[in-house]
Amino acid sequence: MNKSKKSKALMIQGTSSYCGKSLFVAAFCRIFKDAGYKVAPFKAQNMSLNSFVTENGEEIARAQALQAFACDIEPTADMNPILLKPKGDMFCQIVLHGKPYKDTSASDYYSEFALKEGIESVKASLSRLMSYYDVIFIEGAGSPAEINLYEKDIANMSIAELANAPVLLVVDIDRGGAFASLVGTLELLKPEHRELVKGFIINKFRGQTKLLEPGLKRLEQITGKPVLGIVPYIQDLILPDEDSMSLERDFHYDEKKPTIAIIRLPRISNFTDFDPLEAEASINVHYVRSVKELGMPDAVIIPGTKNTIQDLLWLKEKGLASEIVRLAKLGIPIFGICGGYQIIGKKIMDKKGIEGGRSGEFDGLGLLDVITEFSEYDKLTKRVTAKIFADSPILNSGMGKTIIGYEIHMGNTSLGKDARPAFKIIKRGDEQVNDFDGAIDKNGLILGTYIHGIFDRLPLRKGLIEFLMRNKKMEFRNKTIRDIRVEWKKSLRRFSNVVKNSLNMKRVCEILDIPPIKG
To answer: Which candidate in 193, 286, 409, 452 is catalytic?
Structure first.
């Protein structure tokens, strides 16, 4: 690769998805940034349900945005040149260099895109990053040992070769089978790729390290690779999740607290919108997939989706649509975000089959007097600054206050006579504007918006929690509200310190071919 400066790279691969690769890249970014290096993250291809909009209006995976946050730099599309957004039925949308490119099947992705436009785009982005930064920390995707896709994989060993990057292999020991996973992964790699693996990291260990020692010695004998460290299982990290597996965690219910039910749509996207709510000690938040799980919550949120129409039809099939309408009539607040906003409207029109893969007009839940139309394959991706505009029991405490978020949506929504705008957008990207977003009903308890991240900052989150606690005759205490970005920074610092203290950092620096870092 043609680079104008001598940069270093280290790649973090894993034996599986959800083993900690994203967080280890973030931790290394923070550790080496603190050591004085100019660092940046990179992931060639990311399949993610959660995305983020950069300053330039580019859509990338949320994980790379968090890693850039760890570096104290602004995210760019070069950090994640290919984002795959699942749409269901073995189809996904390709977001290329931050912009929608096309929808494709899995087979067409590998046969028509990956080794053509895909790899060329990856090379260009990686080259730009390596020409500017001292060290690039690269995240792999899934496992490098998927032998059915090995020759077409543009996210793992091919990237290590491009970047001349040594590889550290991470395994989640909490899942079990860690030793077999490490040995098996190595065994399935080509010899030249096996040589790129310079060591193992064992993640999420609960217990006494001494009990692992016989296994560690045997592992090193079998593979000839060192174990660079054992990172303990860390509780209560407040960081955005990327993988939908995180939604399978247990729900701990406290009957004294208000409960917010989030509908677990089959094609859910950007569920990190609700991380700030989950971080609140004063409320219960859980994801539901059935009428039985829904029960009698104090509020319901319908989140974003990669296929609004298909998920609308799923809601009707499961009986959730009629149950949500029933709850709304009882005065339970209903929020719709992005695709959820479209779903709670009166009608969705998709004459060309752009969104749902099938053309037609579809009746929504009818909770808001709005109609959404999909007319072209184009997506609005912008950061926005807005002010709370509508008068309502939930929004009153934040009236006129600023919220900051981002738009990622297809389709245009128009308001009828019984709907009022919820927010006033004053800035979109770098442009000062005077636009309106979202809608709210006459009673102020049904709200829809296209703005993601509306709960990250205090005004709307505080207003919702205040309202729910008043309804349960509970006293609201300001101290329960946390600034989620401060919490992210604390958790990143905490995890980075654990990683630094758990790993043989001298050996990591040797692998990177740089002087040992201090501390």
So the answer is: 452
**501 phi and psi angles, rounded to 5 deg:** -80, -20
Helices 484-502, 62-71: axis angle to 10 degrees equals 80
Choice among 19, 286, 338, 409 that is catalytic: 338
pTM, entire model:
0.90
Q: Which CATH code for domain 8-237+488-512?
A: 3.40.50.300
pLDDT score for 297: 97
CATH match for 257-473 among 3.30.230.10, 3.40.50.880, 3.40.50.720, 3.90.550.10:
3.40.50.880
User: pLDDT tens digit string along 170-199?
Assistant: 999 999 999 999 999 999 999 999 999 999
What is the residue-wise DSSP string for 153-188?
A: --SSHHHHHHHT--EEEEEEGGGS-HHHHHHHHHHH
Is a pLDDT exceeding 50 seen at residue 4? no
Annotated active-site residue 338? The verdict is: yes
Residue ranges covered by each domain of the chain: 8-237+488-512, 257-473
Burial (CB count within 10 angstroms: exposed 0-12, middle 13-18, buried 19+), residue 320 = buried
Half-sphere exposure for 72 (CA within 13 Å, toward CB): 9
Distance CA 133, CA 115 (A): 26
Total residue length of the chain: 519
**pLDDT tens sequence across 432-464:** 999 999 999 999 999 999 999 999 988 899 999
